[in-house]
Design the sequence.
């Protein structure tokens, strides 16, 4: 059962029973009833079976899904163990993967739980990120013709983005 529910199947101009809502979203009927009784999903009236407007269901699911999202600042990684955005421990990160398209994968440690943190960045984001933390470049470039180029270095003191060739 998904924790985030998709809204693309919901028709805003239709009425749904709790059974139809459950089938539509891939949830149990009891879950939908709990949404009505405890979490404020609006119904058409107080009669049973409960009827839910598609527009009300769409807004409810949209709010419910967005409540779980957490935005990270440019210099932060999302720690899946702490379930919170965290800066890199010791203000150090490694560029561990480099793509020919100009992006790269940064890796760091969580300062709270010492778990591995990862974040994909573009060249522009990399330049801004390196203002907040020291980045050691330990990347391998994968090009389109399947050749691998080793890149080792440090981002400090460079005038151009190390993600570009």
Sequence:
């Amino acid at each position: 059962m998904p924790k985030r529910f998709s809204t693309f199947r919901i028709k805003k101009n239709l009425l749904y029973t709790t059974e139809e809502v459950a089938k539509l979203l891939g949830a149990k009927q009891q879950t939908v009833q709990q949404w009505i009784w405890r979490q404020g999903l609006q119904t058409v009236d107080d009669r049973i079976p409960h009827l839910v407007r598609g527009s009300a269901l769409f807004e409810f699911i949209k709010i419910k899904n967005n409540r779980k999202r957490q935005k990270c600042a440019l210099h932060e990684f999302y720690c899946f163990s702490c379930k919170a955005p965290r800066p890199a421990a010791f203000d150090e990160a490694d560029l561990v993967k480099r793509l020919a398209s100009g992006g790269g994968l940064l890796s760091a440690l969580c300062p709270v739980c010492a778990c591995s943190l990862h974040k994909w960045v573009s060249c522009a984001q990399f330049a801004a990120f390196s203002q907040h933390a020291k980045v050691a470049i330990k990347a391998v470039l994968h090009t389109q013709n399947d050749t691998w180029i080793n890149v080792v270095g440090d981002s400090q003191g460079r005038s151009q983005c190390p993600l570009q060739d």
User: Anything to note?
Assistant: The chain has two domains: 15-67, 76-154. Residues 145-155 have pLDDT under 50 and may be disordered. Residues 76-154 form one domain. The radius of gyration is 23 Å.
